[in-house]
Write a structure and sequence with these properties.
Elements (H helix, E strand, L loop, with lengths): L1 H113 L1 H6 L6 H17 L4 H18 L3 E9 L4 E9 L3 E6 L5 E6 L5 E5 L4 H15 L20
Antiparallel strand pairs: 1-2, 2-3, 3-4, 4-5
Length: 260
């Protein structure tokens, strides 16, 4: 009986031992599988880390290359900016030089134009004040820089041309002749820029424009010269269209009081 019990115990112990060995083997296999999985995961992580390092290295290389390119471009831009700055300084210097010359030229031209006032003041006495005011205004605007030199010259030439065109026209108008002690009302007749006559409204007073050797214009009355009075009155009638058109003489000053 004891032997049988012992045999049963041994059998049970053997069976339990076998199960324990199997369990240990399974655990070992599980540990080995887990270890292999961990190794694979580690290898994959290591590869990802290596790839990350490589990508980072390439990016650093690319950034360094880009940085070098940008630095080279910045150096080139600095050189170009320096060149442009130098060119700008030269341009500004030249601009100031020519601007100063332009200002001096405008000032000299303004003085020259303004000096023409005397010329128009002593010119044939017809709208002299208009011409004087025109050149004075042109000179003032040029001096202030409101108009350019070319505009000033063009406008001055136009004033001269207006005076020249006056020499090709004849005009008759009503007006008054101021004398030293009185004013006479009557009719004027201008022939170009060489002759001018005046007859009072009642026809009793007749004047013609003369000029002294000093080139001063003045009105001279033909009070006693009946021939001159007749010539002037007839010329005025023809100019007003009150008689048949015809060629008539008019008094014209030539030089040193000479009359023709």
């Amino acid at each position: 009986m004891k032997k049988l019990f012992f045999i049963c115990v041994m059998a049970i112990s053997y069976t339990m031992g076998q199960e324990s060995v199997e369990s240990v083997r399974r655990q070992i296999k599980a540990v080995q599988a887990e270890t292999a999985r961990e190794v694979n995961l580690h290898n994959e992580e290591k590869k990802r880390h290596s790839d990350f390092i490589e990508v980072g290295r390439k990016k650093v290389v690319a950034l360094n290359s880009q940085n070098q390119s940008l630095k080279a471009e910045m150096d080139s831009m600095k050189v170009e900016l320096s060149r442009l700055k130098e060119a700008r300084q030269k341009a500004l210097s030249s601009s100031r030089f020519y601007e100063n010359k332009k200002i001096k030229y405008q000032e000299a031209l303004a003085l020259a134009i303004d000096s023409l006032q005397h010329l128009f003041q002593t010119d044939f006495p017809y709208k002299n004040e208009d011409a004087v005011n025109s050149v004075s205004e042109i000179a003032a605007q040029l001096k202030k820089g409101h108009i350019s030199s070319s505009d000033a010259l063009a406008r001055t030439v136009e004033v001269f041309l207006e005076r020249i065109r006056m020499g090709y026209t004849t005009e008759v108008w009503k007006g008054s002749l101021p004398l030293s002690t009185r004013t006479v009302h009557g009719t004027y007749m201008r022939y170009g820029a060489v002759a001018s006559i005046f007859v009072s409204l009642d026809g009793q007073e007749v004047f013609w424009l003369t000029r002294s050797p000093e080139n001063n214009y003045s009105w001279k009355e033909a009070s006693q010269d009946m021939e001159m009075r007749t010539i002037i009155k007839e010329a005025l009638k023809v100019a007003e269209g009150k008689t048949t058109p015809k060629i008539v003489p008019i008094p014209v000053y030539l030089k040193r009081g000479e009359l023709k």
